[in-house]
Every structure is written in C-alpha cells, then in structure tokens.
C-alpha cells in the first residue's frame, strides 16, 4: 500500500509545479512553502463541493479519508474548498445537500499564492492575517517568515479552534486570535504586512495605524453589488495609505458586513419617475458594479421584480436611508427610473458611470485607492479628478 504521507508530498510538489508553470508561484521561498505545508491536514474536518447545475448552489459534504489517493488529490487541486456553510454547518453535520452561503473555506491556492507573492514579504517581517479560515495560508506564512512573526485573526471561535489545532499539529505554533479582524489586532502591532482573506467594504483606519510606514496592506474591497477588487496599499509616513487595484480577486465578505436580508420593496406609486439612459443591466458589468459600489456603502440589488401593473424592474436599494431606484425598460425602447428616499441613487450612478465611460470604460486595475482618517477615495489613475469619496464612518455597518 502506498504511504499516504509520501503521496501527499508528491501531490504538493505537483501542485507547486503547476502553480509555478502557470506563473502564480514566482519565488523559491513560496515554492518551498507550498511544497512543505500539508493542505490536507487543514481539511481534516472535510469540505463541501458544489452540486453541478444546482441553483441556488447546493453543497454536498465530502468527508476525509486521508488514506485514499482520491481524497488527497482533491485537497491538492487548485480549488477553493468550502469548509463551513451558513456560519455554523460543517461537513460532518449533514448528509444530503445544503443550499446556503459558504462562510469559511480554504481559498483557491493560485489566488492565495498570487496574494502572498504580491505581499512582497521580507525575512523578519511581522505579518497580520485577517480571516484565518482553515489556517492553511497562515501555515504558508509561518513556513516563510517563522511562527513568531505571524498573527492571524478569525471572527468565528470554532473555525479559529480548528485552525489552531491544524497549525499546531503541523508544528506551526501561530498566534490565532478570535476577534473582528476589521479592527486589526492592536496587541501585536505594528506590522510590516497586513493581508485580509475576507472581503471588506473599507480599508479601516485601524489597519493603517497598525502598519509601519512603508508597510503593505493587501485586501479585497467588495460592495453590496458583489463587485470586488484586490487593493495593494502602502502606508505613508503621515498616517495615510495609498495604492493600486491589482486584480479583480474576490473573497467571501466579512461576517459583520452581511447584506441586509429583510429588504422592503417600495410600492408602485412611491418615488419620482423619469427617463434615463442607464439601464439596470449595467449591473451585469463587473467594473460598473465596482464603480457604483464605490459611490456608497450598503447597496443591495433585486433584479426583475414585477409589481402589479408595472413592467419588471431592477431594484437598487439602500435600506439604511430608505432610498431606492427601480429601473425598467430595455435598450430598444429606452429606460425609466423611479427614485425615492434622501439619496438620489440613480443620479449618482448615472454621473459615475458617465465619467467612467468618458475615460474609455477601463477595468478595475486602472483604479487607485487612498485612505485617510477623513475618507476612502477610489480614483482613476489616468484621470485623478474622476474620483469617488466615501467619508469615514458614514455607514452604520462599519
Ligand atoms: C476565505 S476564508 C479564509 C481562508 C484562509 N485564509 C485559509 O487559508 O484557509 C474567510 C474567513 O474569514 C473569516 N472572517 C469573516 N469575517 C471576519 C472578520 N471580521 N474578522 C476575522 N475573520 C473574519 C471567516 O469566518 C472565514 O473563516
């Protein structure tokens, strides 16, 4: 019988080779980490796989069989493996399937490696990771810079306990802290590098303050319309941070920033109606969603709602202020918007999308971000005047 540890080591080397050939792994240090850290040990509670063709996506549990080559191969595939659903359910809890949102996972190895390479870690750097999940990424970091230099923060105590167990079992006595990582972790600050593996709506001032001048913050920013961009910021000496969006990567969002689930649809007579050149189908475009999300926090979208006597409309909702924009029509016949509440959301969206189109509709990586104690500003590198500013602390979800 084949020795499972030998099989796992071979599969790790194969994963590292594939990631290297595809251009994700660039440096020998991260190559060595992928070859050394046993991802399967971080998946010993099993994982969920999506059921092909299910809508909404359903997940079925896959329980561990560390001695089977099939199980090990899945652990070393370049796949994101969901390990918890709906904030509590783990693979051993169910038979059959479950169609709820994933709440913890072991991230896609190629994305993890892209981020680790982009973090530009140097020997001796102190690193804060936000979103421990299985602990696999913290294991890679511990291998690269030493256990004493990495602190990882997880909001879910059960997830944190499993990650600690796996990390320590592999010989990586990493400090796994249970906390809301959106506030960073002041006790071990300052850090040279901060990396978030859950999506957030804002780069919080705490992260900036806890990073040394010249240090790097790497995080995905995601909004209510499910846009996302991976931002790489450098902390400047005056307590601000600034940088570029380097990819469209996306992560499950921070649990505290879950979208409002009880959304009220306004009645058919609410709001004021007018013609608009911008249809609700603009939300099919990733960058357009990214731009609208960067004009305000806390948006939700419900597509194709038909109220009595009304044509189907896409409802853009801002529950916190009670504002809405319901957009109907088509490119052929033209669009109509009905807006209500204190924010004229469609006026803002039209203006922002118009400015972006005037610049040739560039993608997410054409944008930059600046964070100061006063505001978070996302702007176009080629036209710094095309900017969307969110003042600090303007959303109750923060
Ligand atoms: C995609 S997983 C992280 C993957 C992980 N880095 C790995 O290597 O397996 C995202 C994790 O972020 C955690 N999370 C969500 N909100 C958080 C918060 N506010 N602070 C810290 N962790 C959070 C989730 O519970 C989840 O475990």
TrEMBL record:
Short name of one Pfam family for this protein?
PCMT
Which coarse location class applies to the principal site listed for this UniProt protein? cytoplasm
Origin species, per record, is Streptomyces litchfieldiae
GO MF terms on file?
methyltransferase activity
Q: Which UniProt keywords apply?
A: Cytoplasm, Methyltransferase, S-adenosyl-L-methionine, Transferase
Report the sequence similarity comment from the record.
Belongs to the methyltransferase superfamily. L-isoaspartyl/D-aspartyl protein methyltransferase family.
Q: What is the protein's given name?
A: Protein-L-isoaspartate O-methyltransferase
Task: Please cite one Gene Ontology biological process associated with this protein.
Answer: methylation
Report the domain of life of the source organism. Answer: Bacteria
Cross-referenced InterPro entries: Methyltr_grasp, PCMT, SAM-dependent_MTases_sf
Q: Where in the cell is it found?
A: Cytoplasm
**EC number(s) on file:** 2.1.1.77
């Amino acid at each position: 019988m084949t020795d499972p540890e030998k099989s796992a080591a071979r599969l790790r080397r194969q994963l590292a080779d594939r990631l290297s050939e595809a251009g994700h792994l660039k440096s020998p240090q991260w190559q060595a980490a992928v070859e050394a850290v046993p991802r399967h040990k971080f998946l010993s509670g099993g994982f969920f796989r999506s059921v092909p063709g299910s809508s909404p996506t359903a997940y079925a549990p896959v329980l561990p069989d560390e001695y089977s080559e099939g199980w090990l191969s899945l652990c070393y595939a370049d796949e994101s493996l969901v390990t918890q659903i709906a904030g509590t359910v783990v693979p051993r809890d169910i038979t059959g399937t479950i169609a709820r949102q994933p709440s913890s996972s072991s991230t896609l190895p190629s994305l993890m490696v892209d981020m680790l390479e982009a973090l530009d870690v140097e020997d001796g750097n102190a690193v804060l990771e936000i979103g421990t999940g299985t602990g696999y990424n913290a294991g890679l970091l511990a291998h690269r810079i030493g256990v004493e230099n990495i602190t990882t923060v997880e909001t879910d105590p059960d997830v944190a306990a499993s990650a600690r167990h796996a990390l320590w079992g592999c010989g990586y006595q990493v400090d796994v802290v249970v906390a809301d990582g959106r506030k960073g972790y002041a006790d071990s600050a300052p850090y040279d590098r901060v990396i978030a593996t859950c999506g957030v709506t804002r780069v919080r001032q705490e992260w900036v303050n806890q990073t040394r001048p010249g240090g790097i913050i790497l995080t995905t920013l995601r909004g209510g319309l499910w846009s996302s961009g991976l931002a790489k910021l450098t902390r400047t000496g005056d307590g601000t941070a600034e940088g570029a969006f380097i990819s469209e990567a996306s992560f499950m969002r921070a649990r505290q920033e879950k979208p409002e689930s009880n959304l009220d649809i306004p009645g058919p007579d609410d709001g004021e109606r007018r013609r608009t050149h911008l249809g609700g189908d603009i939300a099919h475009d990733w960058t357009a969603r990214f731009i609208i999300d960067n004009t305000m926090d806390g948006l939700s979208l419900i597509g194709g709602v038909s109220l009595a006597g009304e044509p189907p409309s896409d409802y853009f909702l801002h529950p916190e202020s009670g504002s809405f924009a319901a957009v109907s029509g088509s490119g052929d016949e033209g669009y109509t918007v009905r807006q209500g509440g204190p924010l004229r959301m469609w006026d803002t969206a039209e203006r922002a999308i118009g400015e972006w189109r005037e610049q040739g509709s560039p993608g997410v990586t054409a944008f930059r971000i600046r964070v100061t104690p006063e505001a978070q500003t996302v702007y176009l590198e080629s036209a710094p005047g095309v900017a969307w500013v969110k003042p600090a602390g303007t959303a109750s979800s923060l």
